[in-house]
C-alpha cells in the first residue's frame, strides 16, 4: 500500500509516510518521504496503540516513563515516613545506648538565634560547646550549631548548661538530650502528610492510567521499582545524609595543654 492510499491514522503509523495536511486530511496529503518530505533528523514518532500492548516500542517506552514518573510521586510518602522513623530510632539509641557507645556531658549554650528563609520558614539554632574525653585519655573541645525545636529554644538562655549525648570517640555526632526527647514523640505534620498522600494518589493514578493509554503492564513494574528505590533512600540514606550535613557545622579540636576535663 502506498502512502497516497493511507487513511489519516495509517499515514501517521506507516513508516516512510508523513501527513502534510494543514487542517482537513486528504489522501493526497499523505506523502512518502521521497515525494517532497523528509524525516526530521533524530525525530522519533511515538504512536501509542493500546491494542498492541507491550509488543510495540512506543508503548513500552511510554509505559516505563509514565510508571517511573508516577513512582516518584507515589514514593515521596513512604520515603518521608521511613526517614522519620529511622531518625526516631537513632535518637532512641542515642538516649539509651550504654556508656561504652554514647556518653553524656554538659555543654555551654554560647548563643541562640533564629534564621529565616522566606516569609514563613524559620529555624531555631543553638551554638554549644562541650568537652569530650576519648578512650585514649585525650581531651577535645567540641563546638557546633544544632537545630532545635521551638519548645526547647524557649527553655534555655545563653550561658546555660545543656545536656548533650555524643558518640564515644566520634564527638562530632551529638544531640541535645532535651531536643531528642521531643523529636522522638514528634511525627510528620498533618498538613505535610495530607500533601504527601495527594502526591501518592497522583502517582498511582499516573501509573495505572498509563495501562489504559498503552495497554502495557510494564508501567506497574516501573512504578513499583521507583517507589522501592525512593523508599530505600528514605530508610537507608536520608538520615545518613542529614548527619553528614550536620557535621559540617561542628568543629573538634584538641584541648589546650593543662586543661582539665570538666573545667569549661
Strand content: 15-25%
CA-to-CA gap between the ends?
A: 92 Å
Number of strands: 8
Strand adjacency order, main sheet:
7-6-3-4-5-8
> How is the main sheet built?
6 strands, antiparallel
What does this structure look like?
The structure is a single chain. This protein is elongated. The termini are far apart. It has a 6-stranded antiparallel beta sheet with strand order 7-6-3-4-5-8. With 264 residues, it is of the alpha+beta class.
Descriptive terms for the model:
six-stranded antiparallel sheet, elongated, alpha+beta, two-stranded antiparallel sheet, 264 residues, single chain
Outline:
With 264 residues, this protein is α+β, with helices and mostly antiparallel strands. The chain is 44% helix and 23% strand. The chain is built from six helices and eight strands; from the N terminus they run H-E-E-H-E-E-E-H-E-E-H-H-H-E.
SSE blueprint and pairings:
Layout: H1 8-13, E1 17-19, E2 30-32, H2 57-96, E3 102-116, E4 122-133, E5 139-148, H3 150-155, E6 161-167, E7 170-176, H4 177-184, H5 190-214, H6 218-247, E8 250-254
Antiparallel strand pairs: 1-2, 3-4, 3-6, 4-5, 5-8, 6-7
Amino acid at each position: 500500500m502506498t502512502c497516497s492510499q493511507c487513511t489519516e491514522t495509517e499515514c501517521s503509523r506507516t513508516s516512510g509516510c508523513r501527513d502534510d495536511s494543514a487542517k482537513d486530511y486528504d489522501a493526497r496529503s499523505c506523502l512518502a518521504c521521497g515525494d517532497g518530505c523528509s524525516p526530521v533528523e533524530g525525530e522519533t514518532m511515538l504512536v501509542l496503540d493500546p491494542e498492541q500492548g507491550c509488543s510495540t516500542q512506543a508503548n513500552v517506552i511510554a509505559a516505563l516513563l509514565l510508571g517511573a514518573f508516577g513512582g516518584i510521586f507515589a514514593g515521596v510518602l513512604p520515603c518521608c515516613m521511613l526517614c522519620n522513623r529511622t531518625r526516631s530510632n537513632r535518637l532512641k539509641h542515642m538516649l539509651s545506648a550504654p556508656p561504652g557507645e554514647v556518653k553524656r556531658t554538659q555543654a555551654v549554650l554560647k548563643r541562640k538565634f533564629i534564621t529565616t528563609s522566606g516569609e514563613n520558614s524559620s529555624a531555631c539554632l543553638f551554638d554549644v560547646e562541650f568537652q569530650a574525653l576519648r578512650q585514649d585519655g585525650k581531651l577535645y573541645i567540641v563546638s557546633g550549631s544544632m537545630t532545635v525545636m521551638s519548645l526547647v529554644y524557649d527553655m534555655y538562655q545563653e550561658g546555660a548548661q545543656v545536656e548533650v549525648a555524643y558518640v564515644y570517640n566520634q564527638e562530632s555526632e551529638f544531640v541535645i538530650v532535651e531536643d531528642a526527647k521531643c523529636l522522638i514523640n514528634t511525627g510528620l505534620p498533618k498538613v505535610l502528610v495530607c500533601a504527601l498522600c495527594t502526591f501518592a494518589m497522583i502517582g498511582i493514578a499516573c501509573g495505572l492510567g498509563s495501562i489504559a493509554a498503552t495497554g502495557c503492564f510494564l508501567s506497574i513494574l516501573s512504578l513499583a521499582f521507583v517507589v522501592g528505590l525512593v523508599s530505600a533512600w528514605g530508610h537507608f540514606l536520608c538520615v545518613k545524609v542529614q548527619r553528614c550535613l550536620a557535621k559540617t557545622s561542628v568543629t573538634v579540636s584538641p584541648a589546650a595543654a593543662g586543661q582539665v576535663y570538666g573545667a569549661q
